[in-house]
């Protein structure tokens, strides 16, 4: 790993441990019940800016760290669920910055990307739709939201659901289907043509704004706000989604490393039946298993990141990493709760929240079963091609 990345990661870790972790008991972390208050986010980001660790994965010249370098930085930022918010490495902003950095025009970057990189604004990615009989859910190929050209403008209508961070966001990326195919548009938020119909209560609580359901009615946007060209939306989605699902792995691995630290300390201090908890095989073995799973997750992330660094979309590799790491982190978090017993299910430590967040992560950016289904289809194609007479 490069000295550059290690140096940045060390600064990020010091900032998260010394400055961010004390905020975990701040009542503003609960906000309106759908994630931390934006006032808290801006307060932490001001301190991150002062410490030189705001948006640390994007360099001063606008270039990004490699994916392998990004991994060690984002893992360290994830040592607290608040760390990615404070350092501006949190979803959906991190993924949206990556997409705009690779696809947006110079003018679009100045208007929409710059406020995200500076940490002054949050963003939302409007792709997922209601999963009812007429809805697409998270499958963009079934998208029902439409866009039609009207002179030098486009008119967008449809519904979106589970739009993370929409409430309070200043920048939006909306995906819709035209005759030419899928399209993406940039817009300033809020917009009167988009209304929040619901912000459901969810198991996770780390992202400001929650996960909103939206109605889009005659949203009129100039053609200059289309990202790239009409019909290229699906390819842009892949540019964003492969690195973004890997970034989730990085951040939540950091949180599980922290949970393991807390559970290990608890097991070493707590005594039961005449000896420390960790000396009971039932407890010690769980912590040992966690250590193995953490290392396996680190290696899987590094492997998938190295594929992305070659310029490949890495769709299959990021899917494999997402499945492997999310399932491993779920086991780690569950073991930590179990080791800590009753204390593990209380808010006395951040372990309980990490457990909830990681459970939701198994669904973020495609549930485990969807990725396995996609991988199975690829296996079938490769096998039939090999055995075809």
How does this structure look, described?
With 389 residues, this protein is α+β, with helices and mostly antiparallel strands. The protein folds into 3 domains: 3-90, no CATH class; 124-229, Butyryl-CoA Dehydrogenase, subunit A, domain 2 (Beta Barrel); 234-378, Butyryl-CoA Dehydrogenase, subunit A, domain 3 (Up-down Bundle), CATH 1.20.140. It is 50% helix and 15% strand. It has 11 helices and 9 strands. The strands form 3 sheets. It has a 4-stranded antiparallel sheet, with no helix packed on it. Strand 2 (146-150) and strand 3 form a beta hairpin. Helix 8 (281-308) packs antiparallel against helix 9 (315-340) and helix 9 (315-340) runs antiparallel to helix 10 (351-361). It is globular and about 80 Å long. The model has no long low-confidence stretch (mean pLDDT 95). One of its GO terms (biological process) is fatty acid beta-oxidation using acyl-CoA dehydrogenase. It comes from Novosphingobium malaysiense. Homodimer.
Topology of this structure?
Layout: H1 3-20, H2 38-51, H3 67-77, H4 83-87, H5 93-103, H6 106-117, E1 123-126, E2 146-150, E3 153-164, E4 171-178, E5 181-188, E6 194-198, E7 211-222, H7 233-269, E8 271-272, E9 275-276, H8 281-308, H9 315-340, H10 351-361, H11 368-387
Parallel strand pairs: 1-4
Antiparallel strand pairs: 2-3, 3-7, 4-5, 6-7, 8-9
Helix pairs in contact: 1-2, 1-3, 3-7, 5-6, 5-7, 7-8, 7-9, 7-10, 8-9, 9-10, 9-11
């Amino acid at each position: 790993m490069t000295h550059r990345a290690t140096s940045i990661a060390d600064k990020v870790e010091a900032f998260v441990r010394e400055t961010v972790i004390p905020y975990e008991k701040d009542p503003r972390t609960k906000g309106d019940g759908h994630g931390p208050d934006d006032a808290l986010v801006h307060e932490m980001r001001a301190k991150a800016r002062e410490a030189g660790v705001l948006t640390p994965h994007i360099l001063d010249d606008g270039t990004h760290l490699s994916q392998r370098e990004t991994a060690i930085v984002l893992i360290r930022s994830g040592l607290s669920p608040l760390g990615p918010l404070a350092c501006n490495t949190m979803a959906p902003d991190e993924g949206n910055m990556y997409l705009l950095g690779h696809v947006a025009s110079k003018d679009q970057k100045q208007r929409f990307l710059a406020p995200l990189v500076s940490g002054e604004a949050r963003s939302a990615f409007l792709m997922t739709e209601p999963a009812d009989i007429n809805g697409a859910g998270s499958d963009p190929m079934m998208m029902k939201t439409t866009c039609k050209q009207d002179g030098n403008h486009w008119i967008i209508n449809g519904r979106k659901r589970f739009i993370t961070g929409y409430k309070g966001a200043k920048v939006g990326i909306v995906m819709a289907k035209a005759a030419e195919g899928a399209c993406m548009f940039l817009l300033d938020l809020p917009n009167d043509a988009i209304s929040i119909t619901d912000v459901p209560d969810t198991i996770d609580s780390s992202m400001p704004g929650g996960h909103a359901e939206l109605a889009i009615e005659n949203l009129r946007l100039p053609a200059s706000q289309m990202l790239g060209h009409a019909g290229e939306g699906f390819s842009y989605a892949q540019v964003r989604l492969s690195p973004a699902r890997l970034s989730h792995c990085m951040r939540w691995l950091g949180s599980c490393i922290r949970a393991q630290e807390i559970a290990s300390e608890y097991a070493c201090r707590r005594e039961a039946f005449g000896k420390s908890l960790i000396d009971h095989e039932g407890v010690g073995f769980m912590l040992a298993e966690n250590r193995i799973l953490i290392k396996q997750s680190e290696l899987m992330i590094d492997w998938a990141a190295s594929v992305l660094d070659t310029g490949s979309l890495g769709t299959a590799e990021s899917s494999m990493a997402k499945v492997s790491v999310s399932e491993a982190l779920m086991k780690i978090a569950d073991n930590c709760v179990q080791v800590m017993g009753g204390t593990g299910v209380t808010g006395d430590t951040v372990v309980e929240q990490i457990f909830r967040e990681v459970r939701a992560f198994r669904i973020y950016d495609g549930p485990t079963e969807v990725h396995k289904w996609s991988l199975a289809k690829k296996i079938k194609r490769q096998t039939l091609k090999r055995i075809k007479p």
